Amino acid sequence: MVRQRTKKIFVTDKGEYLGFRANEFFLNDKNREEKGSWDIEHKEISEIVLKGGNLVSTNALVTALEWKISMVVTRWNGEPVGILKALDDDSHVKTRIGQYESVSNGLGMDIAKKIVYAKLEGQNKVLRKHGFRQYDLFGIKNRINNVEESNLVAVRKRLLGIEGATSKNYFKEVFLLFPLWLRCNYRRTKGAYDGLNNLFNFGYSILYWKCYHAVLRARLEPYLGFLHSMQFGKSSLVCDLMELYRYFIDDCLIRFGETLRKGDFRRVYFGYPNKRNKYPRLFLKKEKHREFERCLHDCFEFKTMIPRVRGRGHSKSQTIETLVNEEAMLLARFLRGERKTWQPRTASLPA
């Protein structure tokens, strides 16, 4: 059986130092007292998370790159800003050629349809868990399959119409699960003022870099998507992969929302002192934000009873994070012509 990498190193408390010596990573706190060590020979380290305000040695960076250990760099609030990867990570050309060709050979339209259906199937799991009226998945599937156009751009436009209308009703129901003082009327992404939308946005930002990392590991092109349009600076394939797992973030936030109180939020005014916005934006206070961050990371460690793919240890279960990585890998195999079909797998929610 192939050993699965499960351990992570978090360099997140201010003033910490990550170094490397004699085949092991070590972590010191701000007082230079050792907090832990990890032997690389066991090949169990899957990821290193480096938060702003900490230090890391070049020896540790080089070793992580050589051993193919993922390194994520985040801001002080846990929002990812970059991923470090080795130079040979972009050496798999065949995968990207298959991805480029799929835009015009019909595979891209089929992939886009499956992404939309899988997203709505995941939303249905949230509605079912919390006692709301569920979608007519059979009718939705027929509507999606009946979308017939000559090119991906036209198919994408019609699919987003189906997805957008359904998701709008979905969030109307989901917002009712939060305290009255926290609810909002609609989803707003960038620049939201209310606390609830900012919670969703941060949760999706964590999902974003998990999916971005999965796409890079599968040697796919992040900026060439199928459901989302190709635009400068928009990692559309990452956005595509995110759609399959947004419902997990939604459910995590619903559970976390039960612990929230008005005093957990702080008001932030953006802009120069003489040109500040009239209304403040609401964000979690530092300690509550760290608690939410831990809750999100625990969400990705949830074990789902979906077997790992053949050749990956034959385990009968896997974490959500592993599932995200496998889904990107299976998509890459499909685009290379190594699999006859690609069908996204949606995991059951925690009880």
Layout of SSEs?
Elements: E1 7-11, E2 17-21, E3 24-28, E4 34-39, E5 45-51, E6 55-56, H1 58-66, E7 70-74, E8 80-84, H2 93-102, H3 107-129, H4 137-145, H5 152-175, H6 195-217, H7 236-243, H8 246-257, E9 265-268, E10 281-284, H9 286-300, E11 303-304, E12 318-319, H10 320-336
Parallel strand pairs: 1-5, 2-6, 5-7
Antiparallel strand pairs: 2-3, 3-4, 7-8, 9-10, 11-12
CATH fold field value of the largest domain: Four Helix Bundle (Hemerythrin (Met), subunit A)
Please name the fourth-level CATH homologous superfamily of the largest domain.
CRISPR-associated endonuclease Cas1, C-terminal domain
Mean pLDDT: 89
Helix/sheet category: alpha/beta
| Beta strands, count | 12
Regarding quaternary structure, what we see is single chain
> What is the helix tally?
10
Strand content: 5-15%
The biggest beta sheet is recorded as: 4 strands, mixed
Contiguous runs where pLDDT drops below 50 for at least 5 residues = none
Q: Write down the secondary-structure element order.
A: EEEEEEHEEHHHHHHHEEHEEH
CATH architecture of the largest domain: Up-down Bundle
Which percent bin holds the helix content? 40-55%
CATH class of the largest domain: Mainly Alpha
Could you give the order of strands across the largest sheet? 1-5-7-8
